[in-house]
Automatic annotation (TrEMBL):
Family: Belongs to the CdaR family.
Residues of the CdaR GGDEF-like domain: 292-410
Species of the source: Spongiactinospora gelatinilytica
InterPro entries: CdaR-like_regulators, CdaR_GGDEF, PucR_C-HTH_dom, PucR_C-HTH_sf
Entry protein name: PucR family transcriptional regulator
Ranges for domain PucR C-terminal helix-turn-helix: 464-521
Domain of life: Bacteria
A Pfam entry, by short name: GGDEF_2
């Protein structure tokens, strides 16, 4: 029996690219097999992973790296990855030469956790492809699988993900009922049908069994469905419109089809994960600037055009995981929208923020794109977008990202009614937020006039702070200020005199007025 070939080192290095790793010692063999990822722990017993890539987390200095190379050689390691910059001295050169284990340097600023996940995903993609060629009946794509299954079972087939989105379908869909036809047209099971299936326990039955499930009372025409599984995880399902329950032979055929579909979906997901993570790492490198930014921009195809940075955040009351999930949907929608505007636009989600680099001739053009996107998603996803100025060269995109972040912060804080804004559109509230940060850290405003007013209002149930704010907002126009707080002008004059006494505030002093107005803008009530 001949074992299928595993992933090779050359492919891994090519996929990561010089933006993420560089060879700092030794000559990597491109054909060297790689069997997995091993995180170095000097206190742990070495794993039995064959031909591992060893990640030297926390390993610094030429002596420590040399010791890691020597230990990794005993494990049959394909290569060692440590954080750059790497000091290469005589001992390290000797260790690499004797062991044949090359040392790769991970770019500064990159996180070990996503790099580890990225490497595992790259290996998963290779393994999925090898499984296909090692005897799995994975000819064609999911549509070919759907058509083959339909021929075997004599009924139209759909392959769906866990959310009811149609990934592939067979021919002969006209033999289905109205629900099936609507599903194909929308590429999505109608929401009312999904809810009905959920309420009647169809999904519970489907996902709790590893055999086909016959459903004849939920939709017009009976269905047979089976869950698509990988290990203990449900990836999706296959649905067949039938006239009657399947025979034992046809049950087995559908079970085999589900196994093949699982390989397809795993390969697709692994590829999407790898592409998404690699794109996110490249985009992050461009946004951070530095020596690798130009190379990362070139790999993203962003070197030939002026471009600006967009930063999107979802708004509303969400928990941490929910916010990330909503941000993922927003990222997908923004990616689709920007790809129609410019094919070289790059989009990636970094934590809760979705960043995009959009080739654009001007800030105004980019702002119109952002506004159009927000109009199209309407209320389905509540989001705001901050924009930086257009950068003529990739090296200037770091500044554009900084401006986008500053504008986004204003919008997320509700300091502007805009949903999309450049920094120039919200410069004053952005400046006030930054001054407020400094005040909260460095200064004590406990003795300030506005602080005294707020304390007095809280103790006596008065509205002197509101009176001062209205008077300042109307440039000292008592009539207009009184109307704004809905009191008689004489009452307002009395309150004005009283607040000056309580706060020790000279309202005739321009500096005192400016200080009070700034304090009111910087801090909210109770702040």
């Amino acid at each position: 029996m001949i074992s299928p070939p595993r992933s090779v080192l050359g492919r891994i290095i090519d996929d990561l690219g010089s933006t993420l790793v560089e060879v700092v010692a030794g000559e990597p063999d491109p054909s060297r097999p790689v069997g997995g990822v091993l995180i170095h722990d000097p206190l742990d017993e070495p794993s039995g992973i064959p031909d591992p890539l060893v990640l030297g987390v926390g390993v610094y200095g030429a002596g420590e790296v040399a010791a890691l190379v020597e230990r990794s050689a005993a494990l049959g390691a394909a290569a060692v990855i440590v954080r750059s910059p790497v000091e290469v001295d005589g001992r390290l050169k000797e260790a690499v030469a004797e062991s044949g284990v090359p040392v790769l340097g991970l770019t500064p600023g990159a996180s070990w956790a996503p790099i580890s996940a990225l490497l595992r995903s790259l290996l998963a993609v290779e393994e999925a492809g090898e499984a296909h060629t090692a005897g799995a009946p994975l000819a064609g794509d999911l549509f070919a699988l759907a058509n083959a299954t339909a021929a075997l079972l004599d009924g139209p087939v759909t392959v769906e993900d866990r959310n009811g989105r149609v990934l592939a379908f067979s021919s002969r869909q006209d033999e289905g009922d109205e629900a099936r036809i609507a599903t194909i047209l929308e590429r999505q099971v109608p929401y009312d049908k999904l809810r009905m299936l959920e309420e009647r326990g169809a999904f519970h039955e489907l996902y709790s069994s590893d055999r086909p499930v016959y459903l004849d009372t939920i939709v017009d025409k009976p269905r047979v469905a089976i869950g698509i599984r990988a290990g203990g995880e449900i990836l999706g399902s296959i649905w067949v419109v039938v006239r009657e329950p399947l025979t034992e032979d046809r049950d087995r055929s559908l079970m085999e089809a589900a196994k093949v579909a699982a390989l397809h979906l795993l390969g697709r997901r692994a590829g999407e994960d790898v592409g998404g993570r690699l794109r996110a790492d490249l985009l992050a490198k461009v946004l951070e600037g530095g020596s690798g930014a130009a190379d990362a921009a070139a790999r993203l195809g962003l070197s030939a055009h002026p471009a600006c940075v967009l930063a999107l955040a979802v708004t509303g009351q969400f928990s941490g995981p929910d916010r990330v999930a909503v941000a993922q949907r927003a990222c997908q929608a923004l990616t689709l929208h920007l790809s129609a505007v410019h094919p070289q636009a790059a989009t990636a989600q970094l934590d809760e923020i979705v960043y995009a680099i959009l080739p654009a001739a001007s800030d105004e053009a980019a702002l119109r794109v952002a506004q159009t996107f927000l109009e199209r998603i309407g209320g389905r996803v509540s989001a705001v977008i901050g924009l930086g100025r257009t950068a003529a060269r990739p090296a200037e995109l770091r500044r554009s990202r900084t401006e986008a972040d500053r504008a986004l912060r204003v919008l997320r804080a509700g300091r502007s009614p805009l949903r999309a804004a450049r920094l120039t559109d919200v410069w004053v509230p952005s400046l006030l937020l930054e001054v407020a940060d400094r005040v909260s850290v460095e200064d004590d405003l406990s003795g300030a006039a506005v602080t005294r007013l707020r304390a007095y209002d809280a103790q006596h149930g008065t509205a002197l702070t509101e009176t001062l704010s209205a008077w300042l907002d109307t440039f000292g126009d008592v009539i207009a200020a009184a109307a704004a707080v809905h009191v008689h002008p004489n009452t307002f004059r009395y309150r004005l005199k009283r607040l000056a006494e309580v706060a020790g505030l000279d309202l005739s002093d321009p500096e005192a007025r400016f200080e009070a107005m700034l304090h009111l803008r910087l801090t909210r009530p109770g702040g």
